[in-house]
Design a protein that fits this description.
L-fuculose-1-phosphate Aldolase, 239 residues, 7 strands, homotetramer, alpha+beta, 7-stranded antiparallel β-sheet
């Protein structure tokens, strides 16, 4: 069942240790088959060096396990909420990568201070509000998803333009068109958090990129006028 | 004598360089056979790449060497005190991992600011009081153990719920049900110290997790209602 | 066409991940054949582990692709401006190395505080002024090159004596007599930025090297009285 | 000539990249045969992966090359001064390791804040005064050695008890009974500088170890009552 997607999700999970985004088993990637309405996710608490594509668990959009011998990631309800709320995303990743968790602990957005951020994120990476006692004690992982969705709605942020978030006191989630792109976005977030920490503690001032630089860099890589890389609409290779 | 335990303790010691927790020989792991009242510990000052399971030294709960050609870790008396005071622990580790030593040098607790900490530690990781001149000059390594035990008693901290400590001006000790779990806890402490340093210097405010988030994350992984991973009471895999 | 130069530029590009200067595809090196007036540059957005010398793209000094199946780096116009403005350089590199980007985000020069800097850079590594809205919206990559050239002209800096720059809000460019020397200079800039960050946040004071120490270290390695290494005019090996 | 010493010095040099103490060729180790009054040193500016034992250069205590096809390290006069001034040392190392250079740039001692420092250094690692214009312009490398010697004399520091120094605005030198021990001391200095930076920026207060803790840890590893390791006078292995 969904063997190609399982392999794709497995490969994306295996990128996490390679990209220095996880310690022990603290991360998970999922990917969705939108036609079937099923997603595939890493099992909970399994070491990366023991993981196989066949270990991946298949879950429906109600968050119910459809296939798999292992317990799915404990964050599965969060993934379920996000797939339902963001109908155009194809993959989701959650990690405890340390620079992002530092910003989440400080309850600070990761600000967009440079073209490294602007190339991938069309604005700051927002931090959610902290979950309330009631939210945490009832359906914690669902409410984590709801807090993310609310953050984007309340602040009017397009989740495709800023495909990442920090959950306050917790850590980062990222998503993308595919599981691999979600992992890419998670790595960019981590690198940007590291750069921003040093920039902020050097300058102690607001050094956000201006809107026109954000536009320039973001749209060099995204949308109908993109010209970075080999496969974008206006790249020379396609003239 | 205790060959299986020697192998287990050896394996746990070999995790220290792999997890970037030691420089040179600055770390040691021990593990105990509670029925026999004997523990096994790394020899003092031996390079990790020359270590073998047979080099492990067997010590009784008075701190006396029972078997072994090599000198046991100079921290053996500290391990002895801890095994006697904490009768339910199975393994102990001491390192000079740099982020933890930075907090120990600053004589600051490693605060519980995020779910990465809360998943493993049910509260802040305490720093002991500095040892007095008399303590240091009489039985230094015993008094180090006593200072740890006193810290948990004075502050009313459950050593199973917070299985790690900083000795002021010195560095971290961690423990657990097994030598491998002690090493796991030592690594989590180091990662949390790194994250906390950056969070504290970003926000310069108290950003402790609230009690209900601490409860939620700690008990997701511990106790009779744990549901993280494949082997916990309420994990789906066991339904 | 230019096969030896393609190999040289390929090799210099492959140094970038080895020296920890790039994440993903975020870097590019070029090298020029001054007699032919043609330069060779990395294609845009190609993974380093899939790159081959044959993928390198040949470009003329108007910035036009002369040979190559792939789209050249999107930064090609910046390289073109620099080769035209600095007629004695043989290679250029651009990366998003994190310490340098932190200084670029803070819009701070990387100051010359120690002999590690003075050995390679005869003064501070300047940060350009931020590009204006008009510059960004018309010919962004050309204007990036123009901003670099203007920085050196306005501040009277010799681009051979300080072979590196930060573009404000963006990141580092470096150059040299060859592609390999450009990459060397880019790595030194990154190391110096890391050292300077910690020195500045430790001392919070101006600790520039004095002119006579700058002279001593720079001219130990450069010019007709250089005596460092095996191939300099006054090295013992050549007596 | 001195083939065994050349191999020993070569091996010690090759530890520098392995211990992350050097970038490119920025480091050198020497070792001395006191009976012959000759020392062996790395050639100047040679890549570590191209170095062989036969490349080592033999120098006498006037700093003159006695054997070797290659130019010796440009820091050879500094080594010469130190071997003459400190007649009991057997090896010297100089690097540009980044944490140590940060303290040298800030012209701050590396303070003794914890047992990691106290195990190896019996006090703070001092920073020299900055060299004067006249010193730099006449015999720079000799004067670097003289500044080190003067620092220990003026401040009454025993160079065997604190076998390392920072030269202001420049970087670290370390020494020891053998080339390997010099490299060991250089690595400890770098680790201590890293730990201290974070401790100082966390606590912003003086957190020096008290004298009695310094005594305890230093003499656990040094002198006639040492009991750490397998070969010390009072280690259990020798009972």
């Amino acid at each position: 069942m969904l063997e190609a997607l399982k392999k794709e999700v497995y490969d994306a999970n295996m990128q996490l240790p390679k990209l220095d985004l996880v310690t022990f088993t603290w991360g998970n990637v999922s990917g969705i088959d939108r036609e079937k309405g099923l997603f595939v996710i890493k099992p909970s608490g399994v070491d990366y060096d023991q993981l196989t594509p066949a270990d991946m668990v298949v879950v429906n959009l109600k968050g119910e396990v459809v296939e798999g011998k292992l317990n799915p990631s404990s964050d599965t309800p969060t993934h379920t909420v996000l797939y339902n709320a963001f109908p155009d995303i194809g993959g989701i990743v959650h990690t405890h990568s340390p620079w992002a968790v530092s910003f989440a602990s400080a309850e600070m957005d990761i600000p967009n201070l440079n073209t490294t951020a602007a190339d991938t994120f069309y604005g700051d990476i927002p931090v959610s509000e902290a979950l309330t006692k009631a939210q945490i004690e009832t359906a914690y992982e669902d409410e984590t998803g709801n807090a993310i969705v609310k953050t984007f709605a309340d602040r009017g942020i397009d989740h495709n333009a800023v495909p990442a978030v920090l959950v306050a006191q917790h850590g980062p989630f990222a998503w993308g068109a595919t599981p691999a792109k979600a992992v890419y976005n998670a790595k960019v977030m981590e690198v940007v958090a590291e750069i921003d920490y040093h920039a902020l503690t050097l300058s102690h001032r607001d050094s956000h990129v201006p809107q026109y630089l954000l536009d320039k860099h973001y749209y060099r890589k995204h949308g109908k006028n993109a010209y970075y890389g080999q496969n974008n609409p206006k790249s020379n290779a396609h003239k």
